[in-house]
């Protein structure tokens, strides 16, 4: 602006002059208007909208951002020796992981440790929703509100299924997919969109005529695991209430198939082996978290995920090559990473 003024007037305005000050203020206002116009342009389209504006775009197609989901699993309460009477374990018993930042879990059903037995399994869920509740087997060991006469607690299997609030990218993907393949109340897109709109469902495989004419089968997947029975029941009840006439809808969790991954990597200079191994394992796990029902495991994509850590210079990788069926979900098994 100052250059154009100088070219036309033949002199440059002083910064402290009235004209110089006005010019600076005008430049600032023009910049603000251009920034606002650019923001408005980005929020106008689903491909670039974010936050609240993306929510509004999704709602135009009846799509709502999914809320966080609590991880679920099973807690095993035990004693060192048997007793002669039954021990009740109430719903709402709180246990947690050990360490500086413990994660709490709450029993969701009542149970009874029978006389003469040493342990009983009780369904439980994370006290707070989100991915933080996903934990490995054997990590829940602290009795926060111990039931009478119970001496120990553990989780024989991992807690899984916990998910954070749906991200912009995930919501945008659902919105664009819904626009590209619109549901009409009876096609595969309709059943898939209905399932994906439910909290706790990350992917779905729809098989028309699974058991002959007039039947539809849905197989649901969560984030690196099968969804809980409660999620499957909600989807099944909802779809069977809104299904086509003379159509039988079967909803089931996808069968999980664990893929073990072995990788030998060369770390970049100056990086600790422990840090490289941890980053590579996380990259492999995140890759499997992103897979949906019936999606195949692609070794080249796993290699790309490892290089995406930015911590390795070379790698060799091996994993199973068995195909994933339409009713299966590939999940992360044992991950072994060695640094050459």
Automatic annotation (TrEMBL):
Family: Belongs to the Mu gp47/PBSX XkdT family.
Domain Baseplate J-like central, residue spans: 184-252
Pfam families cross-referenced by the UniProt entry: Baseplate_J (PF04865), Baseplate_J_C (PF26079), Baseplate_J_M (PF26078)
Domain Baseplate J-like C-terminal: 259-338
InterPro entries the record matches: Barrel_Baseplate_J-like, Baseplate_J-like_C, Baseplate_J_M, Phage_Baseplate_Assmbl_Protein
Annotated protein name in UniProt: Baseplate J-like protein
Baseplate protein J-like barrel domain span: 74-162
């Amino acid at each position: 602006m100052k250059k154009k003024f100088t070219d036309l007037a033949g002199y440059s305005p002083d910064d402290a002059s009235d004209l110089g000050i006005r010019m600076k203020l005008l430049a600032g206002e023009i910049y603000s208007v251009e920034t606002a116009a650019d923001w408005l342009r980005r929020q106008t389209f689903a491909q670039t909208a974010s936050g609240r504006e993306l929510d509004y775009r999704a709602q135009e197609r009846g799509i709502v951002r999914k809320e966080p989901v609590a991880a679920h699993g099973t807690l095993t309460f035990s004693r060192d020796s048997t007793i002669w009477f039954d021990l009740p374990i109430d719903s709402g018993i709180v246990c947690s992981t050990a360490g500086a930042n413990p994660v709490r879990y709450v029993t969701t059903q009542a149970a009874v440790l029978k006389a003469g037995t040493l342990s009983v399994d009780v369904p439980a869920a994370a006290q707070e929703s989100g991915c933080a509740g996903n934990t490995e087997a054997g990590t829940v060991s602290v009795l926060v509100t111990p039931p009478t006469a119970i001496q120990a607690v553990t989780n024989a299997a991992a807690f899984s299924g916990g998910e954070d609030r749906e991200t912009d990218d995930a919501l945008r993907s659902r919105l664009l997919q819904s626009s590209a393949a619109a549901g009409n109340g009876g096609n595969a897109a309709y059943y898939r969109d209905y399932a994906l709109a439910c909290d706790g469902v990350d992917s779905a495989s729809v098989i028309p005529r699974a058991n002959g004419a007039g039947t539809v089968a849905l197989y649901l997947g969560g984030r690196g695991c099968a969804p809980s029975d409660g999620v499957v029941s909600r989807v099944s009840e909802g779809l069977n209430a809104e299904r086509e006439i003379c159509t039988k809808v079967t909803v089931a969790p996808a069968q999980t198939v664990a893929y073990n991954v072995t990788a030998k990597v060369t770390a970049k200079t100056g990086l600790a082996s422990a840090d490289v191994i941890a980053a590579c394992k996380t990259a492999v796990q995140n890759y499997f978290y992103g897979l949906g029902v019936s999606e195949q495991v692609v070794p080249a994509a796993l290699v790309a995920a490892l290089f995406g850590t930015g911590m390795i210079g070379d790698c060799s990788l091996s994993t199973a090559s068995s195909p994933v069926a339409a009713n299966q979900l590939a999940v992360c098994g044992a991950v072994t990473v060695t640094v050459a």
